[in-house]
Design brief:
PIGW/GWT1; transmembrane; membrane; 15 helices; GPI-anchored wall transfer protein 1
């Protein structure tokens, strides 16, 4: 009986921690290729579907028959989505990992040929054939959740390349994009991006209460089953739910008009990076931990500034691209060009900062 009590709940905890430790991530070029494949697959799936035609044909029938056909249609759409979106992403992240560049180039080529073909076959403007940018944002958010779920479930298996997992200190794997992508995705559709700044404290606390609850639930559950948790990721007690709650609290306390969120966000990130270069990075990457709550969770606490800066930039992007009332009449093609220019600029800036300022670090949320 005494031997059973002394037996750890998770005897393979150390081995599992070593399996996801001391990783350096992948190259920015491969991350860019993977980041291209996921939306490309989603775009091809959208173009291959005939949702509007099928729905119109269903509505012409009587209600009982329409209800039956609706069920069949949505089930078949779910199966097609799995085969054309989920399965390809799963394969790219596992057994086809060595074909990443070829797959990315092939998908971009197919999309380019399709666009040229459609334009040559139609005299209508290109923007009339494209869905709204808000629909694109929904697709982006779904893609973030899908990639996150696939990565979390696959990371414990050897078939998932180690370079895709979370980097230990410096470097970036595809899993390192998840937290930042969630922050930006939330910012694009946030109340701040829609310029709804009047929010009572009770409503603000109510909105973050699920995040706080999930944060404590994760802390209690992982501690209760002795689940492997890398302390260097967020700290002893901290997790990403607490980070999201902290960013939401900061945004509620310091109210900034969405027009100026981008500038403030860049200033926050620049100031945080200067702080890192003046010694904070050495403290965050060291094994030094004081007994207080901040010292125990230094990675999670200090990274709030980086996530908050990203959130403010995301709010600014959401406001100017999707929610600004003065831009309702703007041509969609001009908005698409803005998205392409911003995406390219951010990638170039990331490469420059990674090469000449400081390596990418998810642990510190800085460059």
């Amino acid at each position: 009986m005494e031997g059973l009590l002394d037996k750890p709940l998770n005897p393979n905890k150390l081995l599992k921690e070593q399996f996801v430790s001391n990783l350096t991530g992948s190259s920015l070029l491969e991350i860019a290729a993977l980041s291209t494949i996921v939306p490309a697959v989603v775009v091809l799936r959208k173009w291959s579907s005939r949702d509007n035609i099928r729905r119109d044909s269903v509505k012409k029938n009587d209600d009982a028959l329409a209800g039956h056909k609706d069920g069949v249609y949505y089930f078949s759409a779910l199966v097609i989505d799995f085969l054309t979106v989920v399965l390809p992403i799963l394969l790219i992240f596992t057994i086809l990992a060595e074909w990443t560049y070829i797959c990315a180039i092939s998908l971009v080529a197919v999309i380019s040929i399709y666009i040229l073909f459609k334009r040559s076959q139609s005299h209508l403007k290109a923007q009339q054939h494209l869905p709204s940018l808000r629909a694109d944002i929904s697709s982006y958010r779904v893609s973030v959740v899908l990639v996150t779920c696939v990565s979390i479930l696959a990371v414990d298996f050897k078939i998932f390349p180690r370079r895709y997992a979370k980097a230990e200190t410096y470097g970036s794997g595809i899993m390192d994009l998840g937290v930042g992508s969630f922050v930006v995705a939330n910012a694009l559709v946030s109340r701040q991006a829609r310029n709804i700044t009047s929010m009572r404290w009770k409503a603000a606390l109510k909105s973050i209460s699920p995040l706080v609850f999930l944060g404590f639930a994760r802390l209690i559950s992982t501690s209760g089953v002795d689940y492997q948790v890398h302390v260097g990721e967020y700290g002893v007690h901290w997790n990403f739910f607490f980070t999201l709650a902290a960013v939401s609290i900061l945004t509620s306390i310091i109210r900034i008009h969405p027009k100026y969120c981008g500038i403030v966000g860049m200033l926050v990130l620049a100031g945080y990076q200067v702080w890192l270069n003046f010694g904070l990075n050495e403290y965050l990457t060291s094994d030094e931990r004081s007994a207080d709550i901040i010292g125990q969770n230094k990675e999670g606490v200090y990274s709030i500034f980086g996530y908050w800066g990203m959130y403010l930039i995301g709010v600014s992007l959401g406001y100017f691209l999707f929610h600004d009332l003065s831009s309702k009449g703007k041509i969609r093609s001009s908005q698409v060009v803005k998205v392409w220019v911003l995406a390219t600029s951010f990638w170039i800036l990331a490469i420059i900062l990674d090469s000449y300022v400081e390596r990418v670090s998810r642990r510190m949320v800085g460059y």
